[in-house]
Amino acid sequence: MDTDVPITKCIDDRLGRVGIARHIADMLIGAPADHSIVFGLSGSWGSGKTSVLNMVGELLSETSDPPVVVRFDPWNYPAGSDLVTPFLTSLASEIRKYSLESRMKKRAEEALEAIADYVDALKPVTPRGMSSLVNLVQVRLARKKRKEERKTLAELKEQIGNSLLSLHLRVVIMIDDLDRLSNDTVCSIFQLVAAVADFSRVSYLLAYDRSNILRALRAVQQCDGDEYLEKIIQVPLELPDPAVGALSAMLQEGVERVVSHVQLSRSELKRVGLSVNDATSRVRTVRDVRRILNLFEADWRASVEKVAPGDLLSMSVLRIVYPKILPWIRAQAPGLSGGTGGGYLVSDAERRKKQYLEALGELLGDCGKADDALRLLAAIFPRVANTCGLHAVSVSGAKLKIDRRIACPEILRSYLSGSMEAYAFPREAAMALLHSGSVDELKGILDEESNDVALTLVAVAGETAADMDEDRRSTFARAIIRSGPGESDGAGLFSLPFYGYESCLEKLFSAMGEGAASELFASEIKGLDFPHLSKIAHFVNGQELAYGRLAGKSEKPREQLISLACLKQVERSIVQTLDDAQLSVEYLAIEGSRMLLYLWSCFDQRAYAAHVTEGLLLDPLAYLLYASYQLGLYHSADETGWAISVDFGNDISMERVVDSFDDALRDDAFWTLDQGVKLKLAGLRICAARLLDGAVSYSEASASCEQCEKLLDQWTERYAEGRG
């Protein structure tokens, strides 16, 4: 943890403040000696005023004729107490120290006696605090002298100044943290330095937050605070904000220190960098940086490294900048967390954004703060970004879990509960399997996409691909290619099998090199059936694009992971497998089937037409599954649903879609489909009916999950009645 302790030496300055400290020290040394002068150093809370005062003190001590520096802290005394006596006692103590060092004890006693006279004149009865001066001056002698010759306060102050002059002594009195004192104490301090202790050869350096001081003066003096302050402070100085680069560097170094024992992936490092940038734009002081770092470190240790560090840092920034927001996040967690379908409804985005801003504005009491808080939330929660139309993000719940994102519902619940024990993330177990498991063993784990170990395996393999042994890279690549296709989660390309697995395979092949990758891929693809081919279809399409083939506009050599000869061999393998396959309705419900059918249509249009458009799609249920390819998930603040992501085009008829449901719902095969697929088909029915009626345009056609569930319940009830 980084304690909020000011620096004491110029060498420790990291914010470029030595320059202003030296400027202040030079002004104090050059101040007129014939009267008191007051310097004021204004800066916001946590801006580093105390550190500057410490550096000024160090620089003064290094001058050829250093002054006596007195650090008077009113915080040490209860509010409403007399400050004159302890102040003058502190001054007397430093003068005594000086006299002992300079061997000017007699002249020093004269100065101390003058101070004692002054205190006695200010108060008829010697205050309790004067007992600390007993050992400094001959109090009895002073009292005898005062009986013989009474002097005015002005004469006594002049006597103190003359005594300091005889000592060849200049005094600098520093008073810090004025803005933390009670209103009455603030006014007492100003009266002290302006009237009571305005001795010649004495200069003051006061540190405060100007806005807080003005409020205190207005409350007590019932006057214009600015005018009052101008009368007190002869030399007002403003402490400038630290350079953005300095705060950014401090934050970056702090984060690196906290996570230094963990090897972060490139994507994690990128997110940490983005979070540092976000934080830098919202902090103004070193104290802000330290508070953010301390919260980040506490959360990092508590999470046992189970949460992405970039997200933890962003949450720390959000909580420090907007302390009231955590209870709100806890209440809104279900709508904030979870994956996205990659898009948002334009017609809905502005309305949702307005709702968020109104809620945050009411919570934070400031519209400007609400907008900033919303942008921070959008950086942490992809669903918020999509809902408000700030930017479209496509990420599945599985991907969130892989990346340990705080937007993963399980992780968010654990984070908000204050303990990550509720979320078991078996990273160590995954690492062990990755470095020792056989192809079959790893394949068996990867077949269970919802398994945390499988999710972690993919993540770790992608992160460490470049550092793995060649044998382990090949083993895991084979396990990915041979693993089952999985079922649709509604997120399309960005579901675990296709985004997580595909991305991992790309990293493994990149590390293997074109030759080894081509040999492995060509041999593995030969025996794959339709379901397994669908899983690697997106990877194949990516390589086609990299070579400028199919929809590719130009070659992208850096993205070419297998040779062109291998790619052509893969094309032939796909065509041969699909030509020989007995296609069924169930195949169309597999994630990746859309891309595989697209590739087939490109490689062999005639065979594709014969098998699909002139064969399979004659079946009503198959036709509906094919049409449902055009739908994608959308998420908003309080609902999830299906929306048309692309125009159906000429090959899909709205009339036929609606009519096909009568036959499809009587087909037992419909009721064997995954629940998510059936809900998607319900969304298709709602969207198609609205389009057919002319109620909405393509860009507006959507169906909420609640609507889809209601419709599916009706279908289920009718199906059960028919079977009964």
Helix content: 55-70%
First and last CA, distance: 68 Å
Outline the biggest β-sheet.
Answer: 5 strands, parallel
Counting DSSP H or I runs of 4 or more residues, the number of helices is: 34
Care to count the β-strands? 8
Strand order of the largest sheet: 2-3-4-1-5
The residue ranges in which pLDDT falls below 50 over 5 or more consecutive positions are 124-144, 487-498
Average residue-wise pLDDT: 82
Question: Quaternary state, please?
Answer: single chain
- Percentage beta strand: 5-15%
CATH topology of the domain at 10-238: Rossmann fold
Instruction: Return the CATH class of the domain at 10-238.
Output: Alpha Beta
The second-level CATH architecture of the domain at 10-238 is: 3-Layer(aba) Sandwich
Structural class: mainly alpha
Structural shape: elongated
Radius of gyration: 38 Å
Descriptive report:
By secondary structure, this protein is mainly α. Among the domains are: 10-238, Rossmann fold, CATH 3.40.50; 460-613, no CATH class; 624-723, no CATH class. The protein contains 34 helices and 8 strands. A 5-stranded parallel beta sheet has the order 2-3-4-1-5, with helices on both faces. Helix 7 packs across helix 8 (210-221), helix 15 crosses helix 16 (367-380) and helix 28 crosses helix 29 (605-613). The longest helix is centred in the first third of the chain and has 19 residues, at 84-102. Mean pLDDT is 82; it is low at 124-144 and 487-498.
